[in-house]
Amino acid sequence: MSGEHFSVKNLVIYYRTMKGEVKAVDNASFSLSKGETLAIIGESGCGKSSLAKGIMRLLPRNVSVYKGIILFNGLNLMDLDEKEFTNKVRWNKITYVPQAALNSLNPVIKVGEQMIEPLILRQKISKSEAFDRAEKALKAVGVSEVFLHRYPFELSGGMKQRVIIAMSLLTNPELMILDEPTSSLDVLTQANIMNLLKRIKKEKNLGMIFITHDVSLSSELADKVAVMYAGQIVEFVDAETFYSDPKHPYSKKLMESVPTLRRDKELSFIPGSPPSLLDPPKGCRFAERCPFAFEKCVKDPPVIYMNKGFYVRCWLYVKE
């Protein structure tokens, strides 16, 4: 796709376990232009967090397969060794707000000391300058600078989340990955965090990868949507098309399960459970739960490309 700023092509991540090999991410591909937000949605356990950790090289030691292409400003990040990746990319150009971010702060170290660490270690600036930047970053996310000198347990859940987001902004990144940043917050705090992210995106022209299982929440930020099911991206599409006319049967069922405020509709659900990633089914991985399944679904579905590089992985769109 023209204008690509960040893209992932055929990323594969498998883990070794006592029970066998977990196929967490299987040939995932997507792309983003500068300043765009990609929402990655899907049920718990479908591989969303593994995809994020794979981009950031934060995978556990039991990873058995890690391959593919990750292009950032034309540079294949998979060609960088760990030192180069740390110095040039991680917490510099690409930052990460992990799942359960509220537990990411060290409870016995003051907030300010934790915030300035990457600035001192990575950008080699003085402690006083680092504190100045940390103070501005906190103000930008709506937290008083007095909390630089507080311990994390003195902050509410929403304030901790804002601190983590402020830390991710300190190095002026070009891309921020947020792994379910509102999952442990109450509804009002979720709304405040989403409004904050929308403002940051607009003011800084910051690209984002927003990972969530909440379809309605994803619509707040998304320019593009990637739908994951059982380790695969089954649909990659622009947000307008996804929320009005999703293509993959799994995407359709997800949208049918979301209630609306402005019109009455009969809510639907997806029967059954997602397959185990230890032994995913042959052929289409959604076939056993799909209302449109037919005889061809026993074979791996092809990737059907549409306009502007978007695609759907489904036999229904194969023209005879």
Q: Can you put this structure into words, describing what you see?
A:
The protein has 320 residues and is an alpha/beta fold. The chain is 28% helix and 25% strand. It has 9 helices and 12 strands. The chain has helices at residues 48-56, 82-88, 111-122, 127-140, 157-169, 187-204, 215-218, 239-244, 249-256; strands at residues 4-17, 20-33, 37-41, 63-72, 75-76, 94-97, 175-179, 207-212, 224-229, 232-238, 303-305, 311-313. Strands 6-7-8-3-9-10-12-11 form an 8-stranded mixed beta sheet, sandwiched between helices. Helix 6 (187-204) links the parallel strand 7 (175-179) and strand 8. The longest helix has 18 residues, at 187-204. It starts with a strand and ends in a 7-residue tail after the last strand. The mean pLDDT is 91.
Indicate the low-confidence ranges by residue numbers: none
SS strand fraction: 15-25%
What does the oligomeric state look like here?
A: single chain
Helix content range of the residues, please? 25-40%
So what's the overall shape? globular
Q: Give, in spatial order, the strands making up the sheet with the most strands.
A: 6-7-8-3-9-10-12-11
Order of helices and strands: EEEHEEHEHHHEHEHEEHHEE
Beta strand count? 12
Could you say which structural class the secondary elements and strand pairing correspond to?
A: alpha/beta
Using only C-alpha atoms, the radius of gyration works out to 20 Å
The number of helical runs is 9
Average pLDDT, rounded to a whole number, is 91
Q: Let me know the largest β-sheet.
A: 8 strands, mixed
Q: What's the end-to-end separation, in Å?
A: 27 Å
